[in-house]
Amino acid sequence: MSSLPTITKATLAKDLRLEWRSKDVINAMLFFALLVVVIFSFSFNPTAEESRQIAGGLVWVAFLFASVVALNQTWARELRNQVLDAFRVSPAPANALFLAKAIGNFLFVSALEALMTPLFIVFYALRALGPGWQLVPVGLLGTWALVVNGTFFAAMSIRTRSREIMLPLLLFPITIPALLAMVQATSAILTGEASAKFWIVLLAVYNLVFTTVSLLLFESVLHAE
Amino acid sequence: MKRAFPVFGLLTLVLLSFALYEALIGAPTERTMGEVQRIFYYHVSSAWTAFLLFLTNFIASVVYLAKKNSKADAVAAVTAEVGVLFCSVVLVTGPLWARPVWGIWWTWDMRLTLTLVLWLIYVSYLVLRRFSTSSQTAVIAAALSIFGAVDVPLVYFSIWYFRTQHPSPVIGRGGSLDARMWHVLLINWAAFLCFAFLICWSRYRLERLRRDVEETQALEALLEPRGVR
Q: Measured at the alpha carbon of residue A60, what is the angle toward residues A54 and A62, in degrees to the nearest 5?
């Protein structure tokens, strides 16, 4: 029986290789996020001075919607050919599968953010008036907050009818504090009017709590019969 | 046991009528807000009842995950349903009071937002139960309930930092609630608790019955030889 890091690495490598060859998820996500950015810029006046106030919200809402596209695909691949059932009967630790999927989603969504952020800066003429480097921890912690719960809820929603609709219904209410923290932190940094410290700490606590809960509960959800 | 339900139902009816009388006529009229303040007795009683039901839901979910006891799952399902019902009463009576007193229907203040988020979480719990395919419902619903419960303090802190505006100092620290009003509030809360318990009880019996029927039908389908009918 192999250990948790080995299986995590193997599963993650498999997912990344599959994604590298097909590029299904990243293409769908990118185009979706691009559409959201363009539609937002028609809904609000993007060059106005107030746009700095709402830009944090726009950015994260776009990322949240786009990440749902990736999260919905997380387990789809494993359902075909009964891979998930095979995993269930194997002695491999369930958390290895969860961690691999969560890290994989984290990488996909981070790549999306790295590609979309310049676009936001160009379209909305953004410039950080506060300490800009703090956007990095906010981005990393915020992304993990989205994907850790998202991966878990995606595993729950594959057990339901109309699973694609189910994921956002489960994910959005629970994510409210994290989303509030991401948006407030980003707005605070962009406007330079307030400190983002509290929100970064809140995001870190949120991640710690939900990573622990996910790891504790994933096994019973995977093996639920 | 069969007698207990109607007897308790009758008791609840009497208590509810008495509480209504006390709230509308017995309690003194508030000096600045006037009669509209009386909705407070229903609003706060419903809120406390809803929170208690959500707490029960969380405990039942933990028990279910630990012991895989189907009774605990039925309790969790029932308390979430009735909890959402009472929480909805809170969210409706709040704005009814706020409009004449604050001049606005809604404000994104701490307690209002917290109650709304709690309501959203438990509605998503009910949706999950409704959409889930039979055999795994209990486990994933219990998992979601634990996620929701863990989320509550985080929602609390995030909104606490975000903004605070609710008229808080009525109960607890620095409370200036009239003794007579306290009395009426507690009577109302007791009545609402009994009422909630009554609905839960009836709903729980229904839920058990539904499961029994499902089980029997599944068993019959297995025992019946194919092509006989």
A: 100
Q: Tell whether B131 is within 8 A of chain A (Cβ).
A: yes
> CA-CA-CA-CA torsion for B83, B171, B161, A177, nearest 10 degrees?
-10
Q: Which of B57, B227, B44, B219 is nearest to B145 (CA)?
A: B57
Show pLDDT as tens, one digit a residue, over chain A (225 residues). Answer: 568 888 888 888 988 898 888 888 888 888 888 888 888 878 777 666 777 778 888 888 889 988 998 888 888 888 877 888 888 888 888 888 899 999 999 999 999 999 888 888 888 777 777 787 888 899 999 999 999 999 999 988 888 877 788 889 999 999 999 998 999 888 888 888 778 888 899 999 999 999 999 999 998 888 876
**A160 contacts in B (CB within 8 Å)?**
128, 131-133
- Residue B129 inside a domain? The answer is yes
Among A106, A111, A92, A107, which Cα is nearest to A8's?
A92
B70 in contact with chain A, both atoms CB, cutoff 8 A: no
Question: Residue B144: which of A156, A177, A224 has the nearest Cβ?
Answer: A156
Q: How far, in Å, CA of B16 to CA of B195, rounded?
A: 8
Which one of B154, B160, B162 makes the best mutation probe of the A interface by having the most chain A beta carbons within 10 Å?
A: B154
Residue B50 within a domain:
yes
Q: Could you tell me if A75 lies within 8 Å of chain B, comparing CB atoms?
A: no
Whether residue B27 is contained in a domain is answered as no
Would you call B151 and A162 a contact, using CB atoms and an 8 Å cutoff? no
* Distance (Å, whole) CA B108 – CA B86: 20
Domain that holds residue B65: 39-165+200-213
DSSP letter, residue A100 = H
B146 and B62 Cβ atoms separated by less than 8 Å:
yes
Residue A84 in contact with partner chain B when CB distance is under 8 A: no
Please list every residue in chain A whose beta carbon sits closer than 8 Å to the beta carbon of residue B151: 174, 176-177
ipTM: 0.84
Q: Is A194 on the interface with B (CB under 8 A)?
A: no
User: Which residues in chain B are closer than 8 Å to A158, comparing Cβ atoms?
Assistant: none
Q: Does A224 touch chain B (CB under 8 A)?
A: yes
Q: Is residue B154 part of a domain?
A: yes
Residue of chain B with shortest Cα separation from A180: B158
B191 Cβ contact partners less than 8 Å away, ≥ 6 residues apart: B12, B15, B16, B18, B19, B45
How many domains does chain B fold into?
Answer: 1
